[in-house]
């Protein structure tokens, strides 16, 4: 069977980026497909230096060329199919799952999709038989986690009969990670496993001997940062830089295979990073051209929204989705600040009316320059992005994008009415309105049109679509409320924390209210993950993953505080994904033969 790899880079767009000369899945000229057949050596590729591409700064090392990348991929594919010396299926499954885990951790699993599917299908067949796979705690836990996160229907009951050496760090770590992929409040076995495995791992961290073990760096990270609080591309970078920690000794990989895996991860990261730099530069220019940076009341959060887009939708071909995500994220933040602190009631009513009469702009009258700047930015971006989305989808979807913004501003006006009239809503009234005013609609829903699958009108009105949005927005809204209640109360805004206290007639304190909200937060997250992973449903999996991506983004910013409101809190993460080179030992870079990175990254595909 021929192994195939498609190299994609973003398409040109008048609104989204400079002309890169590449094709995306959304249209344009097809990318070249490079085929590697086991029966013969791959034909040499012709590399051309592309012009007008940004440099990757800060690192004198360079990326392998395309032929070397193909060779690395071929060797890795052979390793995935390599006959195992171990006599048991358990040993074979363990090795194969460990390889899959490594590929996912360093961000290159998408290049081996068919090989990984074969491994997971094989593993699932033995999971269903309750065969030898259940004999080893580490293998069983890893199989459960990877199978579940790839959409296989596996029950947590499969973990209920395993036994493990309580001093075996790797088994405990796999059990703890498996406990985090809960998709229901009823999976008590996972809660139990998470509790005792986490306790034992924390004990190991305090051990003097354990502190000398490289694996304990991974343990500390997993305990401090649950997987649903971390962004993928940040994790990929960390795992590439700590490759010695994530590589599993049972893989028994050759030195060359280790180098191939690491080399592929390095090259994939740098290829993506060069594209991110172009996209972010263009978005920054858009903010200035739209005059959004001239609004004194507005938080400038473009960097944070682009971070979340690039870190969760990281493949190069998802450029349009990243651009829309970041652009609308920046816009919704400006609008939110306008309604909260920047605009008078007259200005807010004027802006809402302008959005309502979208098709009748000849009657446009701006109450103030601030209204003109905000509305013009919304109007121009929605129309241009709507035109692009319509071309991708093969039908007019601009009207849907307009409706999303109209609903957002109507609900924001409801909150203004509550605030100015002194009305105290019930918690249910607040949540129903806040699901919309948390302003994830303009970010996520239009992006669905750019991730590949066709989104029909029937999908948009399907209950599953609404439920995905409700769970995502409720989880994000409550996470935000728990961390921002004090600031919002000073601004005259009520949220779920203050409402719980007000409606308790003095029987509940602020700390108790925050604690009470943790259960619905956890429930929404688990229910959302279950819906995203379920296969027999209406919304395509790539689209559902966007809802999960923004849920993780909300945890990333609000898990331990209000990092979103702080200009510098996550600045290091922005730099790590967009600007900073990988931190790898120079001798390692030399072994990877990453010479002349600047020239090789500019290969014309």
TrEMBL record:
<dbReference type="InterPro" id="IPR005630">
    <property type="entry name" value="Terpene_synthase_metal-bd"/>
</dbReference>
<dbReference type="InterPro" id="IPR044814">
    <property type="entry name" value="Terpene_cyclase_plant_C1"/>
</dbReference>
<dbReference type="InterPro" id="IPR036965">
    <property type="entry name" value="Terpene_synth_N_sf"/>
</dbReference>
<feature type="region of interest" description="Disordered">
    <location>
        <begin position="1"/>
        <end position="23"/>
    </location>
</feature>
<feature type="domain" description="Terpene synthase metal-binding">
    <location>
        <begin position="288"/>
        <end position="527"/>
    </location>
</feature>
<keyword id="KW-0460">Magnesium</keyword>
<feature type="compositionally biased region" description="Polar residues">
    <location>
        <begin position="9"/>
        <end position="23"/>
    </location>
</feature>
<dbReference type="InterPro" id="IPR008949">
    <property type="entry name" value="Isoprenoid_synthase_dom_sf"/>
</dbReference>
<dbReference type="Pfam" id="PF01397">
    <property type="entry name" value="Terpene_synth"/>
</dbReference>
<dbReference type="Pfam" id="PF03936">
    <property type="entry name" value="Terpene_synth_C"/>
</dbReference>
<dbReference type="InterPro" id="IPR050148">
    <property type="entry name" value="Terpene_synthase-like"/>
</dbReference>
<dbReference type="GO" id="GO:0000287">
    <property type="term" value="F:magnesium ion binding"/>
</dbReference>
<protein>
    <submittedName>
        <fullName>Uncharacterized protein</fullName>
    </submittedName>
</protein>
<dbReference type="InterPro" id="IPR008930">
    <property type="entry name" value="Terpenoid_cyclase/PrenylTrfase"/>
</dbReference>
<keyword id="KW-0456">Lyase</keyword>
<keyword id="KW-0479">Metal-binding</keyword>
<dbReference type="GO" id="GO:0010333">
    <property type="term" value="F:terpene synthase activity"/>
</dbReference>
<dbReference type="GO" id="GO:0016102">
    <property type="term" value="P:diterpenoid biosynthetic process"/>
</dbReference>
<dbReference type="InterPro" id="IPR001906">
    <property type="entry name" value="Terpene_synth_N"/>
</dbReference>
<feature type="domain" description="Terpene synthase N-terminal">
    <location>
        <begin position="77"/>
        <end position="223"/>
    </location>
</feature>
